[in-house]
Amino acid sequence: MEIMARLQSLQKVFKQSPLVTLSKEFPNHSELLRQLHAHRMEYDILEEKCNTPLKIVLMGEVKAGKSTLLNAFAGDAVSPVNVTEATASIIEIKHASEPRGIIKRKSGDDQEGTPEEIYGILGENRGNQDFFGDVSVVKLEFPLPGLKKIHLVDTPGLATITSNNEQTTLDYIQNSDVVLWVFSAHHLGQWDIEEQLANVKSFGKPIIAVINRLDEINGHAEEVEGFVEEHLGFFVEETFAVSAFQAFEGIRGGDESLLSNSRYPRLLSYLEENIEKQTEHVQEQSIINSMNALAEKERIQHQMVADTADFLLKSMERRKQEITYHNEAIKKKVKHELQSWIAMEFMDEEKREVMQLVDELGMMSGKGTYDSISERVNRYVSSEYITNILEKKFSDINELFYQEWNEAIRDIGDKIIMEEDEFRKNQERNYQDRDISMNLYLPEGENELKDGAVKGAAIGGAYGFAAATYAAVLGPSAAGITMGSALAAVMPPVLIIGAVTGIAAKLVFGNKKKKEYTLEVRKALDEVKANVSDVFLPNMQNQLDTESNRIAHNLFEKLCSFMSQGWTEKELIQLQQDLQGYTHSLYKWEQQSDTGIVRKTEQAAVN
């Protein structure tokens, strides 16, 4: 399969992505769209690369000597070190019949001139972030034989790469065929660049490690090379320790001894044999590797979205079960509390007090004593007295109801956070600790991606929503959880009226009537308790059940809506199916492309 045809077939697959036309936002939606856009930008770069010469990009830390090495490649001082080390620009150098230069500006106000004039402008704006923030690239052309077959690109030192030009730098990495990563021999072991190397590796580019400034240290070249290969061998194809300064001076002064001591010829020989003499093959393989890496990043990104949808669906189901469990448990507990209170506590103290007074009645007890007891009974069974008792109990039950739901919500919130943390760890294990079919450009024998090799593919899934969910949904819900009704809703006035009607009239006095009087007093008090149990308790329980069910329903709806940003269960299931179909299309593309490569290789062998 021809490279351009293969690219076009990948573009057709990209257009099928269900994430491009989402009808509503998904968790981490802005990052999701940014990465989708980045993948399509990478595609455009690869398409353009099919018609451009081989390009070598130099990367590395500040003062590693990238510009000096670039000068050695070109055979002349095409990159003044005192200028480029102080800029945050990408400088592209290529061959032309006449020397010229141009500063491409994002604003469109380009500046042209000779290379010397261009470097002069860069030097004048040394440290000017506003100026360099508007520079997309600096292009220089020189009539030098060393630039006829390759383009050289000098990138800003790692310390100068800001968020404003990082994407531009990454674009040039995708536009390259080979990356020379330049280290300073002074700082070996002091760098923390695995993440940056993994990021470049994810583009499918071969990385060659160049340890510069070898002439300034006492260590042996082989020891220095071995150290880098031991620590960064996963990321780099080959390692060379050189002195770019000695190489450039040897080339410019015709000093063969100095050039030999620089060890630069060894690096140059490798590039000539493996890059320059195989330019077409290297560039084609670079594009193929980059396409495969791009397709894999696209697949990973979509699979992670599918994982997130699956996590949300399972989390919704677990929340439904948990909320149902807590709802039933709360209703049961409060109902038991009410039943126990009415059976064991309601009016019991008043009854003991009155019955003790009745027991103390004797032959000498007069009408005043009976009237006093009757007045006390009438007060205890009055609407006002019973209402006060029930209002107090209503308040206590309401507080219990509130506490139980708050504890339930805290329990649900804790489980959400634990599940999300486990989900995050699983994704890290799944996508960073296994081979993700990048075999075409991974070192032979490697079967694991290490330390963020898929950086740039992950959208974060549902990360970070749990704490926000608790603050935005669970917290306010908990603060507003009460039964939310007046006592009148559960205790109609007829209850009290029926309880006390005629009680006073039935109470008679007289020594010979004490037994009958005792029965009437007991009956009056028991009648109130029975009526409260028969009417108040069911009404209270119905109110409790209704309110608890309402809270459970609203809590589940708000929680799920917030977690999924408004996606319903049905919509998430459909998204999963669409994503599965898309990743299958990417897999078919990879299989068809691999078949095309095998046939082409076999045909070349026959010819």
TrEMBL record:
It holds the Pfam family Dynamin_N. The keyword Iron-sulfur does not apply. Keywords: Membrane, Transmembrane, Transmembrane helix. It comes from the Bacteria. The chain crosses the membrane at residues 486-509. The keyword Zinc does not apply. InterPro entries: Dynamin_N, P-loop_NTPase, TRAFAC_Dynamin-like_GTPase. Residues 56-213 form the Dynamin N-terminal domain. This is Small GTP-binding protein domain-containing protein.
